[in-house]
Amino acid sequence: TLWEKIAEFFSENRKTIKLTVPSELDKLVGFIKKNTEVIEYSFNHQLKEHEMHIVIPNKYIGSIQKQIDDYYLLNYYNGKSDDLNKEINSNE
Known about the structure:
alpha+beta
């Protein structure tokens, strides 16, 4: 139907974005390389991050960004938990 064609058109729209992906998310990097057009790619050894300039279908942007955000949130939480445990153990 016409509505399905319109929905498909909008779901296939693409954007050019820059992403920084932690090296621990190698499977995500593989997915990005397979399902997007990579314009520029480099690996920052010092920060252990993949730096990518890509053309990506809109339908992938949200889920990819969520995985990256979740990784950093979990890392932040775990780091704060480790700091708190160290503080508790040093006060015993």
